[in-house]
């Protein structure tokens, strides 16, 4: 590992001692018994503190409460340097690395850090490069600097995630089991990195599961939880004497962490001595000034971000575009899928649009094309958005950018690749099937195909925002099928029961089909051809529209209907994002 003084050059040392303390902290969820039961403690800067305890003792709940991730049901006092911080200031000072590492899978280590620097600092590009270099150095990421995040090892992913947090130079860093999934050597290395970071007077706090004796030695302080109560808070050095004071002696050569966790377990028969220790610890910890939680006292009045709204938008757009281009399902799969399908359809329905005797087949082609555009575009997004959403959540909570900046950039960045794929799809299918060559009709048809691609994209993002990949991949196709059914091709409006008729107005396929019908056969089209020997009952556009139950419709009215559905979905997406970050 490199020495930390390289880091000092660009990431300023935390200037003064920082102390995180909490008093009378209680967290109750739905259970009658509190998960954290009126606990207090202090974490000091320059120290690496381990939170240990048996499974279910409340370790993650404590970190969630201290990070501000969980405010509902939390009561008590959280202070930094004996002061209550407002929510925004608190987020600047404190970072939280959860067990799940949220990274954009298709960005390399260097790119991930570069974008993180662009979003979190305002300095010159030379300084930004220096910060990236320093973080790569201090977290020993040189070896994988050009490796995409999806290919990194578990330890490298965790270090990269810590590196992102380091950019904003937090004074207090919280970690939930940073060694989970790592072997003993990698775990030791990981905790050594955390230890290294304490040299800058940072306050480092980590939940750690069953640390080996070697690993435990790296920690300065311990905070031991037992069933939501504090059993010990203090230096590792004083741990054993504290237990010995009530006659609980750690056997020689026994791992101290195992000894303590065993005592803290609810199945331990020596309850009276444990209660005595908890009681004593409570009175030691409780000498702190009373105050309110930051979330209760100082509700956020307006957020300030490290960079301007414009910079947030541009950086996020660049990053999302890069991620989209490198994303297999969003680029290759979507593009190739659309092209292959349009070639396939074009060959099957070759020149069908030139012959009025094939009018039913032509409408089948139109509906199949629309279905394909919608299914391919929406499914491609469902597969990728949930990963992105977890990165958005993490960065939003770290105060990197606004919901509006993310929302705008997401729509903008995905729009061009989506359009490109759908334009090719439309053009190949349109010309192979021999649809009319007038520019006006082609543009009218093409516009509807693009709008359907847009609808599919936003529908998929909304689903990805609300549901997991598993649920989304089931729900989206199964909700699209009824929309297709009510689109006017599979069953006519007048054949539907009265109760079902309103559903027709909610179907984007319906608006699209009718608009395409108008584009192809409206405007007094008279040149619908008829092959020799073909039975052409309908030779004019007007007759065809009558047969399709589309007479007296207006192209722009149908396009507007589709547009309204798209606008509503945009509003829903924005609301979903706001709810997600609450
Ligand atoms: N929202 C919730 N609703 C109900 N119970 C909850 C909730 N959150 C946590 N719990 C319960 O609170 C207890 C403490 O959970 P927590 O995740 O903090 O434990 P932990 O010490 O981190 O455990 P582990 O080491 O297994 O991760 C557990 O019994 C858990 O089931």
Automatic annotation (TrEMBL):
InterPro entries: AAA+_ATPase, ABC2_TM, ABC_transporter-like_ATP-bd, ABC_transporter-like_CS, ABCG_transporters, P-loop_NTPase. Its main location: membrane. It comes from the Eukaryota. It is found in: Membrane. The chain crosses the membrane at residues 328-349, 369-391, 411-432, 444-467, 474-493, 559-579. It is a multi-pass membrane protein. This is Lipoprotein-releasing system ATP-binding protein lolD. It comes from Culex quinquefasciatus. The lineage of its organism: Eukaryota, Metazoa, Ecdysozoa, Arthropoda, Hexapoda.
């Amino acid at each position: 590992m490199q020495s930390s003084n390289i880091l000092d050059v660009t990431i300023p040392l935390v200037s003064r001692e920082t102390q995180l303390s909490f008093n009378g902290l209680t967290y109750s969820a739905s259970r009658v018994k509190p998960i954290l039961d009126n606990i207090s403690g202090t974490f000091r800067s320059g120290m690496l503190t381990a939170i240990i305890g048996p499974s279910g003792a409340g370790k993650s709940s404590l970190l969630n409460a201290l990070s501000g991730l969980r405010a509902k049901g939390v009561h008590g006092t959280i202070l930094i340097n004996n002061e209550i911080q407002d929510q925004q200031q608190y987020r600047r000072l404190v970072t939280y690395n959860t067990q799940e590492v949220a990274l954009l899978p298709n960005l390399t280590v260097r790119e991930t850090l570069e974008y993180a620097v662009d979003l979190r600092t305002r300095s010159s590009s030379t300084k930004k490069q220096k910060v990236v270099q320093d973080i790569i150095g201090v977290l020993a990421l040189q070896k994988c600097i050009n490796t995409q995040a999806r290919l990194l090892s578990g330890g490298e992913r965790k270090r990269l995630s810590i590196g992102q947090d380091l950019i904003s130079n937090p004074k207090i860093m919280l970690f939930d089991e940073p060694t989970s999934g790592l072997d003993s050597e990698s775990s030791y290395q990981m905790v050594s990195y955390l230890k290294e970071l304490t040299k800058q007077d940072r306050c480092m706090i980590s939940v750690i599961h069953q640390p080996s004796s070697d690993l435990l030695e790296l920690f300065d302080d311990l905070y031991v939880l037992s069933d939501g109560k504090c059993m010990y808070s203090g230096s590792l050095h004083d741990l054993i004497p504290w237990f010995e004071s009530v006659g609980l002696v750690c056997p020689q050569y026994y791992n101290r962490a195992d000894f303590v966790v065993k005592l803290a377990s609810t199945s331990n028969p020596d309850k009276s001595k444990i209660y005595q220790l908890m009681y004593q610890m409570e009175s030691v910890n409780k000498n702190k000034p009373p105050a309110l939680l930051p979330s209760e006292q100082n509700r956020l009045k307006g957020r300030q971000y490290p960079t301007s709204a414009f910079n947030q938008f541009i950086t996020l757009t660049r990053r999302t575009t890069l991620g989209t281009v490198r994303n297999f399902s969003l680029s290759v799969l979507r593009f190739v899928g659309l092209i292959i399908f349009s070639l396939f359809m074009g060959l099957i329905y070759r020149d069908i649009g030139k012959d009025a005797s094939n009018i039913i087949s032509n409408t089948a082609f139109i509906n199949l094309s629309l279905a394909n555009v919608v299914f391919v575009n929406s499914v491609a997004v469902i597969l990728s958005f949930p990963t992105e959403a977890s990165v958005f959540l993490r960065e939003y909570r770290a105060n990197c950018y606004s919901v509006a900046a993310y929302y705008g950039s997401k729509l903008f960045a995905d729009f061009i690749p989506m359009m490109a794929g759908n334009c090719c799809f439309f053009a190949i299918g349109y010309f192979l099937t021999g649809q009319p060559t007038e520019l006006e009709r082609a543009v009218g048809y093409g516009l509807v195909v693009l709008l359907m691609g847009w609808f599919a994209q936003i529908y998929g993002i909304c689903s990805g925002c609300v549901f997991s990949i598993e649920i989304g991949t089931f729900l989206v196709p199964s909700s699209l099928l009824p929309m297709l059914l009510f689109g006017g091709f599979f069953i006519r409006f007048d054949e539907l029961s009265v109760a079902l008729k309103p559903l027709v107005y909610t179907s984007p396929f319906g608006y699209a089909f009718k608009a395409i019908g108008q584009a192809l056969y409206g405007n007094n089209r008279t040149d619908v051809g008829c092959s020799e020997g073909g039975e052409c009952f309908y030779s004019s556009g007007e007759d065809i529209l009558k047969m399709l139950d589309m007479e007296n419709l207006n192209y722009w009215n149908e396009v507007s209907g589709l547009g309204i559905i798209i606008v509503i979905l945009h509003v829903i997406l924005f609301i979903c994002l706001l709810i997600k970050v609450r």
